[in-house]
Design goal:
32% of the residues lie in helices and 23% in strands. It has 754 residues and is of the alpha+beta class. The structure holds alpha-L-fucopyranose.
Amino acid sequence: MPIGNGAMGAAVQGGVAQETLQYNEKTLWTGGPGAGDAYDYGIPDQSYTDRLARVRKLLREKGALSPETVVKSLGRKAQHYGHYQSFGALQLSYPGLDGAVEDYRRHLDLQDGIASVSFRKDGVQYRREYFVSYPDQVIVMRLSADHPGKISLQAALNVPDNRSVKRQWREAGTRVSGALEDNQLAYAGEFHIEHTGGKLVRAEKKGSWTVEQADSVVIRLSAATGYALQYPDYQGKPPAPKVGAVIAAAVEKKYDALLTRHRADHRALFERVALDLGQSPSDKTTPMLLADYPSNNTPAENRLLEALYFQFGRYLLIASSRDGSLPANLQGVWNHSKTPPWNADYHVNINLQMNYWPAEVTNLSETTGPLFDFVDALVEPGRRSAEQFYGADGWTLFLNTNIWGFVGVIDWPTAFWQPEAGAWLAQHYYEHYLFNRDREFLENRAYPIMQGATEFWLDALVAGPDGEALLVSPSYSPEHGDFTEGAAMSQQLVWDLLNNTRAAALELDERAYAKKLSGVLERLDPGLRVGSWGQLQEWRADLDDPENTHRHVSHLFALHPGRQITAEQEALLAAAKTTLNARGDGGTGWAQAWKVNLWARMKEGNRAHKVLADQLQDSTLPNLWDTHPPFQIDGNFGATAGIAEMLLQSHGETIHLLPALPDAWATGSVSGLRARGDVTVSMAWQDGQLQSADFIVGVDGPVRLRSDLFRENFRVQHLPTRKVVVVSGEGAVRQWSAQAGHRYRVERIVQSDE
Ligand code: FUC
């Protein structure tokens, strides 16, 4: 059971007589500048522009090049890239609890953000509670029993063997500190034991403690490193004083105060959205619900699992992405290994972006803070990368990055060249603005990032063979096929960036710049072609194989998360559908999650639901973590976003309620979803029909609702005054002018009202 506060995470494993609380601090990484001078952020000393020119020339001549050929010219072996590390484990052993227990229960309360384990042994009821507090930056564990004197234990803090270790006794606790061998990154962790009744004594082994016959025990645990998100040396303050201060402050606060503060903080985020898909409560455990899914005789139990999976994704985002630390990585914040898959890093050809798909629409906008801090910090090295690889202005990065500003390339042929990653990350800034209408953010944070990414592409685009169309070259559609010029995904991402930047420039009254971008957009190949078998082409030439079921569907970016293919473009929608059908519903967790979103954008609720069901069966572990395999968190976040996308869409400047409601969710309700334009939406539906919806509008301005609702006799009332602001009628879209802070109700007109 994962718990976390963004900076720290722990996996509650729930052992009875022996317990391991494995935990993480997100900045503990090997690699980086401290690992040796060979670390160069992935940026070559020598300019690569000649190599780039040669590859471009060959591509123009031959039309395509194998990834193995291109990687020889443009790939580089990454030095000291590093791995995200497990911090360590609090090891607890409980004498007297060996052997069978009764009524064992392991529980994760998503609403409170508290894990617990309970059981009975020899007539005594035991309970253990765990949470990670964001306000107090501490992991807290409480052990209790319903009889006095029943809590006895031994506690020690262990760390992996790839670092120096110094153990110091502290008052009622232990500090473990040292540095990673690989890069000398300093770390410090500390725990403190508070006991009621019984006694606490130092054990023989240095740093270990024994509790004898206490009534209850509270353990506080913390961790920090000497890392700071600051190019080029990423060096922060020594961590030991920090953990010392955190523990001292947490000891000052009673357990109840820590709990109350944690609960209030967590609930303030989590409770914003409630989802009822027509689920029924069940006595089954989560693994049982999953095992019985979907052939369960009680469909309401399937819906329970689906609603739970949605909220679990929101829970995971709160637990792995809070201000003041790094964004959620491939494993969120949870990693038990020294060499996790893909280094548990930040892949930016889908994965990091997908992690943040649910953030806005499921009303957790604050969780994007770490993403923006992280990307902001990539700009400085990213400028050097743009210069060395392209001789271009602006900033760029490629397939993957770490916490040490890696912005260069690796040497894996089919996954190393993705310079469109910057454009994709910039989309998140603009979407953050669209959802929240925070002008200050647009001006001071979003626009500079978007403009920097745009400047790069203004230099990096090349004129096509006809001398006119602007193309990305070299271009590579993840993670298969040949290198070509102007693959669909490359063109669409640049289109998205330039369009968003132009819109932002207009909002900020940067008219000259907007005009310049309009000129470029007129020449930019938009990356949208319908091919010989009706598919949306993945490449500029019609190369698509109808038998190809590769997991990446990057050429559908324009449909989702892009906004390039609109509801009116029927031919392109049909082509996207042909492509999706050909690619099939399978894939790894994130690939399935993406397809849930894509089918939702296609307004095919039943198909979106079917792919979600596949994901639950094929790519979900018993604790509901997404498995790639192994565990990779993007699929959780992508599916949570996909469920929201089935219920509410607002990408086309209009709000569409229940755009892709599947038959399986015929009756239900949701509250607190967010639509672009700073609108918070709650709604209820029955037998597949919308009953009513409430909008709370955050800014003055027009709210636009899609017309299909209005065909069915609806009206919109300004709630405080009950004044009707819009009724059904002719026209594609109905809109009204909303007042900031006011509430509006959309409802069906029943006969007696008329
Ligand atoms: C991309 C994907 C892989 C995996 C990796 C972390 O390269 O193609 O499937 O998710 O990222």
